[in-house]
Amino acid sequence: MKAMVVDDSRATRMILKRALSSQGFEVVEAADGRAALDELTKTGPVDLALVDWNMPVMTGYELICEVRARRELDRMAIMMVTTETEATQVQRALDAGANEYVMKPFTEDVLKEKLLLLGMGRE
Amino acid sequence: MPGIDAADAAFVRELVYKRAAILLDEQKGYLIESRLQQLVHEGVSQSVAALVADARSGRGEASVRIVEAITTHETFFFRDVEPFEALKKTVLPLLLPPGAPPRKLTLWSAACSSGQEPYSIAMMLLEHFPAAVAAGARIIATDLSAQILAKAREGRFRQLEVNRGLPAAYLVKYFDSAGGWWTLKSKVRALVEFRQLNLLDRWQLEARPDVIFMRNVLIYFDAATKRALLERARQEIRPDGALFLGTAETTLNLTEGWSRVATPKSAYYRPRPPGAGGLP
Ligand SMILES: C[S@@+](CC[C@H](N)C(=O)[O-])C[C@H]1O[C@@H](n2cnc3c(N)ncnc32)[C@H](O)[C@@H]1O
């Protein structure tokens, strides 16, 4: 399984990458929505993308809209991982096509449990 | 950090075993110590030694507080996912055959902790079995700990708690948020009735359950207690009912009273008719 971590914080990318690797994912990184979209356009869809909301150049929200608008990428599962914790924001992300939503701060268990909801990861 | 006296630790082990049938092995010394320290920190007593002395002499609530502090309450929404999927896809469709008037379901969450398990069932019912809800389905949720039940009844959770295991779609649909708290809507809470019940005492359920969730609690008991509880659950449950245990729990080598039904990644149990109990 291949995953992409999209976050402008290098530290957060490291944490998410380590957690996903331990769940058996091969992980690539991107520092903003635009970089993520360029990479996906080049290499094709990944199985799972963990996407921050607030990033320079292109936000995670815009990235989700872009991915869902492209048939060749649409099969990706997308999990928003963000400090946005308003119910209205969660709803917006789901409406745009996010499959799951994690509010920062989170623990590795949180991630594992959400992966299980998506039918992914190790037991 | 001052340690705990060996005799005091032995007393606490004995106490927890007698009240909750939970076996704490010698390696759990750190657990005993850290939980009692926590109580001291909360101002329940001056020191660990004084706390244990109070419990020994039966003063105040000391022994109750010790038992509650040591029995762990770890839980989260839709824990392990699979049992809730099996309930939705297999067990409930069998109990609610299409065409027949829906029966009044009773589901029992037998060690419900802070409520995530019964509330998960409640949300799943509202989402997928509205006719059963309309027909009066209810969830009886019980636990040994009065303190944890008080929290469960509030139906109010912190961000970290709703992050754990809860599908985001349910978060926005079934909770109201304010000031960092997420509160379950009253239609979810109305399905769940919380009550204090020690599994070792008489059960006194007013209706026979169709479904029992007895998850991540047998794990604390010795084999004889597990066997006895599984046997009582079999007498209590309706003949076509289903029992769900924790991932690390099984009826295997304990009783022949239940037959295992495999699900894709796990299993649930159906009661065998009376007389089929015990090991050969
Ligand atoms: C780890 S939690 C399990 C919660 C939930 N069933 C789950 O699987 O997530 C265990 C719970 O069992 C309760 N418990 C321990 N001994 C008990 C007893 N003798 N009778 C009833 N509840 C008990 C504890 O208070 C605790 O809330």
Sum this structure up briefly:
Chain A is α/β, with parallel strands linked by helices and 123 residues long.
What does this structure look like?
The mean pLDDT of chain A is 95. Chain A has a single domain (2-117), classed as Rossmann fold, CATH 3.40.50. By secondary structure, chain A is α/β, with parallel strands linked by helices. Chain A has helices at 10-22, 33-43, 60-69, 87-96, 108-117; strands at residues 2-6, 26-30, 48-51, 77-82, 100-103. Chain A starts with a strand and ends in a 6-residue tail after the last helix. Chain A is built from five helices and five strands; from the N terminus they run E-H-E-H-E-H-E-H-E-H. A five-stranded parallel β-sheet of chain A has the order 2-1-3-4-5, sandwiched between helices. The longest helix of chain A has 13 residues, at 10-22. In chain B, strands 6-2-1-7-8 form a five-stranded parallel β-sheet, with helices on one face. In chain B, strands 3-5-4 form a three-stranded antiparallel β-sheet. Chain B has a two-stranded antiparallel ribbon with strand order 9-10. The longest helix of chain B has 15 residues, at 6-20. Helices cover 42% and strands 16% of the residues of chain B. Chain B starts with 5 loop residues before the first helix and ends in a 9-residue tail after the last strand. The complex binds S-adenosylmethionine (SAM).
Q: Give the spatial strand order of the biggest sheet of chain B.
A: 6-2-1-7-8
Number of strands of chain A: 5
Beta-strand residue percentage of chain B: 15-25%
Largest sheet of chain A: 5 strands, parallel
Examine the coordinates and then state which fold CATH places here, giving the name of the CATH topology of chain A.
Rossmann fold
Helix content of chain B: 40-55%
CATH hierarchy: architecture of chain A = 3-Layer(aba) Sandwich
Give the CA-CA distance, first to last residue of chain A: 15 Å
Largest sheet: spatial strand order of chain A: 2-1-3-4-5
Query: Distance between the terminal alpha carbons of chain B, to the nearest Å?
Result: 51 Å
- Share of helical residues of chain A: 40-55%
Give Rg of chain B in angstroms.
20 Å
Question: H/E series of chain A, N to C?
Answer: EHEHEHEHEH
Number of domains of chain A: 1
CATH superfamily of chain A: Response regulator
- Please describe the biggest sheet of chain B, giving its number of strands, its sense, and whether it closes into a barrel: 5 strands, parallel
* Dominant shape of chain A: globular
Oligomeric state of the chains present here:
heterodimer
Poorly predicted parts of chain B: none
Low-confidence segments of chain A: none
